Structure formats: C-alpha cells, structure tokens
Amino acid sequence: MSPSRRWRNLGTAAGAATAGLFAVFDLYQWAAAYAADRFHNDFTFYLAAARIGLAHGWPSIYDLKLQQAELDALGSGIKVAELARYISPPPVAFSSAALTVVSIGTKPEPMSPPSEWPM
Question: For the chain, how far is it from start to end, CA to CA, in angstroms?
C-alpha cells in the first residue's frame, strides 16, 4: 500500500469516526431536549389554535391570552412570548381541528359535531 493511499484511508476513517461521534452527540442532545419539554414544537401551537378556534371562533386564534390559557390546559411549559406564539394562517389551525381529539399528555376531550362549531 502506498503512503498516500494509507493517509487517505486514515483520513477517511478519522472523518467517519468524528462524524459518528457528532451524530451520537446530536441524538443525545435531541433526546434530552425532547425529554425536558416535549411540547415545544409547532404542532403544539397548531393544536392550541385549533382548540381555540373551535371553542371561541376562528378570529380568536391570535389572541395571546387565549393561546397561553390553551397551552397551559395542554400541560405545556411554553410561555407565549415574542417568538413563541401561533402566527400561521387560519387554514393551518383549521386543518388541525380534526386532531383535537388527540391527547398530548392530557385527558382527551371529545370533539363536538361540526353543526355545533362556533363560526
């Protein structure tokens, strides 16, 4: 084996080992963050907005006080702030409305029939 080929193989092995270590570290960080606060993701805001829309009407989905109350009702530790609030268009919340029967660490509540939805 020529010296240049040996160094190339060594460099490839070192790069693969380094990439593997970074991948393991990244998975550890992701798991630790998820375990600490599994609610801090976009779907939590979609679900809260859908529940607000069904309960208070769709124009109310941007009310920050209602968002905070709904996030608290879901059991989330998220505090509504400048960068942590629902800002997506209403169709995103409306498309999540069917999933409001899904439980995220809370007791599921049955969804009312569409004829009873406040519009």
Answer: 76
Q: What is the three-class DSSP state of 104?
A: coil
Q: What is the DSSP letter of 110?
A: P
pTM exceeds 0.70 for this model: no
Give the torsion sign (CA, 52, 58, 64, 66).
negative
For 29-53, how does the pLDDT look when each residue is reduced to its tens digit (9 = 90+)? 878 876 766 666 678 888 889 999 9
Size of the chain, expressed as the number of residues it contains: 119
Give the relative orientation of helices 42-56 and 64-74 as an angle to the nearest 10 degrees: 110
Q: Which residue has the tokens 């995103």?
A: 92
Side-chain-facing half-sphere of 112: CA atoms under 13 Å: 10
* pLDDT over 90 at 99, yes or no: no
| 37 contact partners, CB below 8 Å, separation of at least 6 | 76, 77, 78
Neighbours of 15 (CB within 10 A): 10
